[in-house]
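pasting for ref
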Amino acid sequence: MFKNLIVSFTIFVSFLPVSFAANEDNFNINSPAQIQEASPEFVYKFLLAEIAAQRGDLNSAGHLYLDLAKLTKSVPLAQRATEIATASRNGRLAMDSAEIWRQLDKESVEAQQILAELLIASGNLGKARPLIEELLKQEKTRADGFLYLNSLLAKVENKKNALRFIVSVAKPYEKMPEAHFSIAHAAYFAGDKTLAEKELDIVEKLDPKWETAALFRGYMIAQEWPEKALEHYKSFLRKYPSSNEVRLEYAKTLTQLKKYDLAKKEFLKLVNGSLASPEISLTVALLALELEDRDLAEKYLNQSLERGYNYPDKIYMYLARIYEEKNEPNVAIKYLDKIDTGNLFLEAKLYAADIIARHKSIDEAVISLDQYKNLNEQEKLKFLQAKTSLYFNNNRQQDAWTLMSKQEENFKKSPEFKFDYALLAEKMGNTLLMEQLLKEAIKLKPDYALAYNALGYSYADRNIKLQEAKKNIEIALSILPNNHYILDSMGWVHYRLGNLDIAYQFVKKAFDIQEDPEIAAHLGEILWRQGKKSEAKKIWNDSLKVHPSNNILVETARKLQ
């Protein structure tokens, strides 16, 4: 009952507004259908709805389907309207549609369930209660129903209301551990730890072997006393040594507390068991990597593959890194070559190119990226960025420049390309082109904070057009107020304007966020100009220990000391 949900719906419920009510205006379940399904009007509206859906205008499509459902008393159309409304994250429309669906088909458990979930998500627990009570009457699905209620109630803002709700609906089921667990869960998040403990004690008496309850008690304890959580898990495992889920959590907690040797023993118990999952094998492999035991990591990565891990590309990436660390680049590349689609495709190919560049040659690395033809625009740009970086970072600036300039025509509408091209132009000493490209990028993408910042910082760094520089950086900061680079830029333009105290505030804030060597150079220079030379030296020297070859930092410290 509670688990068989439309995927889009479960994603949707967290985006609902705080309150809304179903609109039942102009709909009477007892009135006859006003339009026959074969009528021209019906066909016209239906086609409009389908076209709107195909074009991505889900809001219009949902409204059209709901109108048709009301007029024709069609259950499938009401269901379709509900599904589209949830997909478009239109809470009001979803509520209206689900209510009509439920009225048209009072036997539909799915309609009743969705409407109840919508009501709970909106905080309308009073109206949801009779629906939930009706659903919980179904004995076969009652246990799962209580557990699913936990996840729904977790989205309710008023936790005390959620607790009162679950206490009320759970009252008829005093012999069910799931009912008491739901109360414990709600009580804990409502701040009533005493009630949570009391209800978990009842659960333990009713079903002492239940791992879910043991895990939740461990979670509660771990929030304040992680070491005590370990004792809780150990105690449970002494009684029920085959409890894999508790053992896994025990091992994870040991890892978090950096008790790696003990964690390793527990993970090995899990991974060598007859019921070990591919996920457990992967977890053990990652722990082995943490302990720098590459051979053990490789063993269990392969075991995870053998046991049918659902995302093998993830494992191929780990294996590639292991073999590169073993100085076997060809084997590493073979694993990366296995990743030819999916979310890790881009990362894998860029990583392979990097390995080729470091172990073979830059030209071979570039050729390796050139072989991929059916790329989307984002992938094309990432590949281009990678090739440009390979050239530039290996003292082949002219090759990088030639490559970017040849691609300009292919990326005329890409603000990201223009931004990258502008930065390269600046490095090549072509500041006029840099300014032009950054302005073009901003025109294409008016909220492009990094472009505003780059333009403003360029002016400030050259000590020209300082008011224009400040204006651009202010815009960037309004878009990304906590970006350390932009904060540093704002500080630097104030430094150029002679506002040393304001400059210090901005650059210090940037440095507190990220101890970047260039920010350290700026912070030290401001302190130096303020007469705080010992503080400036300390900033520079500390940063030089970490970044001894940063040119800006080295030059600033040399110039002023």
